[in-house]
Amino acid sequence: MPRPRVLTSGPLRAHPLPALDPSGSKEDRGRVLVVGGTRRTSGAVLLAALAALRAGAGKVQVATSRSAFALVAPQLPEGLLVDLPEDRDGVPNGRGLDVLHGLAERADALCIGPGLIERQAARRLIEGLERAAGRSIWVLDAAAIYALRGAPRLLERIGPRSILTPHAGEMAQLLDCRRETVEASAIRCARDFSRTHGCIVALKGAETVIAGPAGEVFLNRRGNAGLATAGSGDVLAGIVAACAARGASLLGATLHGVHTHALAGERLAQRIGAAGYLARELLDEVPAILFPTPARRRNRR
Fold first, then answer.
1. How many other C-beta atoms can be found within 10 angstroms of the C-beta atom of residue 152?
2. How many other C-beta atoms lie within 10 A of the C-beta of residue 45?
3. Could you give the strand order of the β-sheet that contains 137-140, starting from the edge strand earlier in sequence?
4. Under 8 Å CB-to-CB from 220, ≥6 apart: which residues?
5. Contact predicate 154/176, CB 8 Å
6. DSSP 3-state assignment of 298?
7. How far apart (Å, rounded) are the C-alpha atoms in residues 155 and 271?
8. pLDDT(283) > 90
9. Backbone phi and psi for residue 195, each to the nearest 5 degrees, phi listed first
10. What Å distances lie between residue 159 and 139, 154, 171, 173, CA to CA?
């Protein structure tokens, strides 16, 4: 069994992101479909979509509940948006998915779950998109993780194409155990689940554990306490989805996504404080981390 490794420049180089082609088009940088949001959580899907754009995805499309659509659309002029029928609480009710099939068929990565707070709604969305999504990569967050609980056949079908980004509470729900059990055995929980289901697991925490199906484990020790804030996980999910859509391996997309998210928090901490910065402020830090501009040569005349 491979020993856990600290996530440093070595593993990042071993699992690289595709090089940015200066002459490439937006089609070359991949397409992300973000599905989530409710009337009360429209900001989550917006954060994930903006994070995917900031992380270099060529196209980002969003499917969200009808009431959330009205809030998100004015703030996302760069994206294509689809509104989904909803129940009385403003949660997508699983109907009207036909309109999403065409988007899912062309998506390189699906980011499912930001802002979704209802397990059954999330499962209906996943099951409704599964066949249409073809070989797309799945990045699952929030209620989309809960949706996999008690669904072994669904996990079997999408697991090898999936990246899960749970915090300890979500992992405990998935494993049907106590949060304290996950926190005390984070490496074992992430590794065992990843090996059993063939997926990548990024178990978020003060030390985020990234586990792959071959038993490999990486420990991210960068970042700071300020990352434990509302919306931060939605930003992470969007970054990971963009890295995957651009053509990185599932493990590579996860490693670079977690690392970029952590460095963004460190940069904000230097300017603002160790805590108190906002998840939306992480977005502006992402491009310079993933796509640094070469330093200009000094004029030596």
1. 12
2. 31
3. 5-6, 217-220, 208-211, 200-203, 162-164, 137-140, 109-112, 31-35, 59-65, 80-84
4. 7, 207, 208, 209, 210, 258, 259, 262
5. no
6. coil
7. 42
8. yes
9. -65, -40
10. 10, 8, 15, 17
Residue 33 burial (C-beta neighbours within 10 Å; 0-12, 13-18, 19+): buried
Look up residue 259 and give its two tokens: 């690392």
Is residue 76 within 8 Å of 46, Cβ to Cβ? yes
pTM of the model: 0.95
Backbone angles phi, psi at 112, to 5 degrees: -110, 130
Q: Could you tell me which of 6, 11, 27, 22 has the C-alpha nearest to residue 247?
A: 27
The CA distance from 143 to 166, in Å, is: 10
Pairing of strands 208-211, 217-220: antiparallel
Nearest Cα to 142, choosing from 111, 105, 160, 115? 115
Give the chain's end-to-end CA distance (angstroms, integer).
58
HSE (side-chain half, CA atoms, 13 Å) at 98 = 1
244 near 256, Cβ under 8 Å?
no
pLDDT tens-digit series, residues 93-131: 877 788 888 899 999 999 999 999 888 889 988 988 887
The DSSP element (H or E) to which 21 belongs, if any, is none
Q: Using a CB cutoff of 8 Å and minimum separation of 24, what contacts does 229-233 make?
A: 229/275, 229/277, 229/278, 229/279, 230/279, 231/43, 231/44, 231/47, 231/278, 231/279, 231/280, 232/261, 232/265, 232/279, 232/282, 233/114, 233/141, 233/142, 233/165, 233/167, 233/204
The whole-number pLDDT of residue 99 equals 82
Separation CA 171–CA 152 (nearest Å): 15
